[in-house]
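User: Round two. Same drill as before: sequence, then structure, for each protein.

Assistant: Same drill it is. First protein:
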Amino acid sequence: MSDDIPFDKSFGLKPDRVREIAPRVRAIAADNPGPFTFKGTVSYIVGRGQVAIVDPGPDDAAHVAALLDAVRGETVTHILVTHTHRDHSPAVPKVKAATGATVFAHRPSRPLHTGELHRLDASADMDFRPDVSLPDGEVVSGNGWTLEAVATPGHTANHMVFAFKEADLLFAGDHVMAWSTTIVAPPDGAMSDYMASLHKLAARSEPIYLPGHGAPVRQAPRYVQFLIRHRQGREASILHRLGKGAADIPTIVKAVYIGLDPRLIGAAGLSVLAHLEELVARGTVVTDGIPSIAGIYRLA
């Protein structure tokens, strides 16, 4: 199902080594590879002299040290966070303490409701609090750089990307990545929000996205269209399976995810749940009670 997307699984960054990858942009990858993080979470340094850091990454001593070493002799004025999964924001307190920078993000993690659990390896950083909550469209600027905050909920409720005006590129967090599709895992993730955010990005002109994992996304508007068509195809596959009769989520996963890495079965189930939540909301699919991972689903 993902063969229709022109993935780029190349990756040239060695862990905790800084490299300039675009004008006024340096990248450092954390040494936290895994099925959800690929080769590791990528942190970015924007500007020279007075700089911003985008996504300081996990609470990993070696990565924090590498980040701080990379900006030695410079002033970090801003820390920007795309979202509050544990591989992106937990290094913020240490970097803030060392630099005195102001922390910007869309908002804290969505509070968990009764009965909800953290899910996946990249669960929410519930302790994160930005100094400044950014609304959609807000502009943050520093010495020689301007970043536009673009709200892109879907992967998480508080996901936000940042358009770097002077370089005509966009820091995409986990919303759009070159190496893989994005996991949309309820309750924090929502497929309706994710699709709306993809359409929002498709209308933008930045040709390059720098994601939270993996290599840069080239020809980004075209690539986003591939992602939209892929999700539409996934929805069609789910409806095709339900056309054969009622089914639970494990049955649907087996039908629509062929050759899936066993480590990703749980994540695939949550993505199917996200699709089903939207289909139930539209009245196309029905289930008993609210959509859940344990539910039985059938066509309306």
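Second protein:
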Amino acid sequence: MDESNNNSNTEVFVYTEGVVVPEDVVRVRVHPSVTIIPDKAFKDQNKKLEEIELSDGLLEIGEEAFYGCSLKQITLPSTLRTLGHRAFYNCANISTVHLPDYIQNFGNRYGCEAFSRCYNLANFRMSPPPRKNSTIPNEIVCACLNLFSVEISESDVRFHNSTAFAWCNSLRNIAIPYDVSNIGGFYS
């Protein structure tokens, strides 16, 4: 695979800090030196972006970083600590998400909505948070019309305002550990 910084959509574009991503890019590899993907880095300008390879060492994905991209799958690195508000909002083609262990910060004061309006998202798995009594943020996954299953690994967590999986009308399987508190209702 050619890893050059050109705009041919058959090659892998290597994303480095401060680079402007061409509009016709389909595949991106984030260089291992990148620790933060800034706010709106790929937002809307990359409607063709289907694949992104994130390297270990990535600490933060900014607000609306991949908003509206055509990503089919996303593997978040174990080093990720901050997931910005609407980071993958309206990425309609993503089908599975597994949040890595120890994400410390979600979204902003308005909520998270990191994976909201990902219409093809069918499976969502969240590993244990870094500390007890953590809160799953507002609308982390909402309006995901095909969301079928949610798994939250064993931990003492709380759901913030009961809107974590709002308007996920196909949700049928929820695996939540026995010590979860404050679930509230699920909107549909």
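The first strand starts at residue 12 and ends at 15.

User: Perfect.
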